[in-house]
Design goal:
The structure is a single chain. The protein is an alpha+beta fold. 24% of the residues lie in helices and 44% in strands. It has a nine-stranded antiparallel β-sheet.
């Protein structure tokens, strides 16, 4: 297992050639963190990555077999990209599993044939330990995704979520 990033906030490791695992603690109970991950109005406020992007589309049918579609737009140049997939498992507030496919829009790039994502939320003291496990179709797909700087963007988003949770959402 290779650890590729460990900061004060987020730990990212690569347990095998196709998997990325992201661990992060939040100072809020699991039900509140789960809510932030599952309510479109809240998700649009924090899941933004680097400054200058907005979540222009956040459609979610939160049930097993339900579809979702997320799209981001660069406020400066209008470029867009997104992700879409299907919910495969729900166990509130314990975990969410879904498929994830990249829609490059006009940003470009390729992240392969998609991935399976499981996000779990476990009580840890008065807070939550979140673990996101992403399993790609191949090692090449994982490397393509990692080359985008995705884990840096995830941490930027998680820092926004920290602020929202501190304010009670």
């Amino acid at each position: 297992m290779e650890t590729v990033m460990r900061g004060d906030e987020t730990e990212v490791d690569l347990p095998d050639e196709r998997t990325v695992r992201v661990k992060r603690a939040f100072a809020a109970p699991p039900d509140l963190v789960y809510k932030a991950f599952t309510e479109p109005g809240l998700l649009r406020r924090w899941l933004l990555g680097p400054p200058g992007w907005e979540m222009s589309v956040c459609e979610m049918d939160l049930r097993v077999g339900g579809k979702y579609r997320w799209r981001w737009r660069n406020q400066e140049n209008g470029q867009e990209f997104g992700f879409y997939g299907e919910v495969t498992e729900l166990d509130p507030p314990g975990n969410i599993s879904h498929t994830e496919y990249f829609d490059p829009g006009d940003v470009g790039g390729d992240m392969g044939k998609g991935s399976a994502v499981t996000t779990s939320f476990a009580a840890e003291g008065a807070g939550t330990r979140m673990t996101v496990t992403i399993v790609y179709d191949s090692a090449e797909d994982r490397e393509a995704a990692m080359s985008t700087g995705m884990t840096d963007g995830m941490e930027m988003s998680y820092q926004r979520l920290d602020g929202m949770l501190a304010e009670g959402i």
